């Protein structure tokens, strides 16, 4: 399992064997079954999570029991609850597996130490943070200014590799539209 993460670190950060060994020393391999939690609301997020295989979702549950999808993560993506992780506070969110998944976990303490001692890793993390911020801004813009059709098309174009791996009701929640609206929009696109 670590070999996939190792290849990612070589490709994205250009780490050498010694740097890879330092990362390996603090990495924990974890498997989740479909529907198994990585993080539950009320727990403190203490790990940065790299997805080797599978699909995770980050979501919160509203007062009426409605699930609100915040993020998805598939192979070679990172997942955590950043607010809980960065501030050491109980999470308002849940993270669970939509598929059987294989993960690499690195504690926040070790993750920060690695960045301080491996400049190439710190640079990679800074690039990832910048891209994540940009993606969040694009999502805000789409949520406040796009029609349901535009949101759907943007999702398909942005995440073509995960669209068919996620149930439609979760995609609808992520887009901020009803499942009925998503079905109507999807049918419209299928019959174009």
TrEMBL record:
Residues 30-112 form the Cyclic nucleotide-binding domain. CDD domains: CAP_ED (cd00038). It holds the Pfam family cNMP_binding. Transmembrane segments: none annotated. InterPro entries: cNMP-bd_dom, cNMP-bd_dom_sf, RmlC-like_jellyroll. This is Transcriptional regulator, Crp/Fnr family. It comes from Chitinophaga pinensis (strain ATCC 43595 / DSM 2588 / LMG 13176 / NBRC 15968 / NCIMB 11800 / UQM 2034).
